[in-house]
Amino acid sequence: MKIILGIGIGISLLGIFQLLKGKNAKLTSTKIAVLINIVWTVRCIFFLLKDSEIASKYPILLMLDQNLLLLDSVVLWLYSKSLLNTTKFKFKILLNFLPFIIGLSLSLISYLSVPDELILEQYMKLEKNISNNESLFSIDVLILFLVIIMLSIIYFSKSIREIKKFNSILYNHFSSLKNISANWILKFHSLWVSLFLIPIILYFFNYMYPVINVRILLSFMIIIQVLFSFIFNSNVLSQNYVSIPKKSILKQDNKPIKQFKDELNELKRALETSKYYQDENLSLVKLSSYLNIKSIELTDIIKYSEFENFYDLINTYRIESIKKELISSTEQIMIIAYDNGFNSKSAFNRIFKDKTGQTPSTYRKLNKNTSQQY
């Protein structure tokens, strides 16, 4: 198990190094990702030290590690929130760390009020009882685990809201979401709640009704921690961050509906003739620059159109252009897709089927009597 803990520490430290030397080192999101890695590194170090002679010299190490469980859901939520560039240092942010601060303070007070020898004696007795599968119910442990469960549920819900808000803004400002969407953080948080929280609950119930070997549960939690560290850092390092306009939620314009219809027709003509949608990195700001209008005006035009958002607008034109080329040419499907602004095969296939109800190859076969290698 020491080898696995060493691997976990190595992954977290490597993640910290890569984040701090990367081009996004100054972003709030990166700083919070570093904080998450620090929490996980410290946890792994505590696991290592508790089984070493160092713990007998510094018994305080035996009393602090459980408090770290109060941080995971909070820092994961902060990362989700930071994607909108709204996470700035404010005093009220510290309130989210209050459970951890209280838990840490109580541990320190308890440590200062009890002789080191007694702490070691109680810890050895606890280890013996665990080995013998004896009941170890404690009101302190009950409160700690209930708080951990409550925090995990609350901050997971808050993370869901932040990511939904972030994705909504992406759809309104970008025509391609490759590597800028952050749905992975929701999946990661879900896995964290299920695969990490469930063993914690089992661990607590095992205190009262010993059934499972606690060592097995601890080993499982350590392995999950190392695995999650790898998954988190892999996604964070590949995440592309975008600059979201401050006025993402815009007030409704008071222009007459007829004027918006005229401007919408002009927008459609510009897309049909200039084919701006072929730019794979096209954004709301870039298109408004091409059209020589303000991005706020373009947002209002789209708002009064039949399109759901900017993402839907551009990809509708991309798909319509691709449909024509699938029938009129024998070019490979993905080359046509790339030429029309798509930069991801999976995104293209998904959007094409959403728009037409068919796969690109099926559409070509049904509308043309020749088949082409996909």
What topology emerges from the helices and strands here?
Blueprint: H1 2-21, H2 28-50, H3 54-57, H4 61-64, H5 72-82, H6 91-94, H7 98-113, H8 116-131, H9 139-173, H10 183-208, H11 214-238, H12 257-274, H13 284-291, H14 295-303, H15 310-328, H16 333-339, H17 345-356, H18 360-367
Features:
374 residues, mainly alpha, Rhopdopsin 7-helix transmembrane proteins, Arc Repressor Mutant, subunit A, 2 domains, elongated, disordered C terminus
Give your account of this protein's structure.
The chain is mainly alpha-helical. It folds into 2 domains: 2-238, Rhopdopsin 7-helix transmembrane proteins (Up-down Bundle), CATH 1.20.1070; 257-367, Homeodomain-like (Arc Repressor Mutant, subunit A, Orthogonal Bundle), CATH 1.10.10. The chain has helices spanning 2-21, 28-50, 54-57, 61-64, 72-82, 91-94, 98-113, 116-131, 139-173, 183-208, 214-238, 257-274, 284-291, 295-303, 310-328, 333-339, 345-356, 360-367. Helix 1 (2-21) packs antiparallel against helix 2, helix 2 packs antiparallel against helix 5 (72-82) and helix 5 packs parallel to helix 9. 26% of the residues are buried.
Q: Please summarize the sheet with the most strands.
A: none
Sheet/helix structural class: mainly alpha
Portion in beta strands: under 5%
Please, what is the average pLDDT? 83
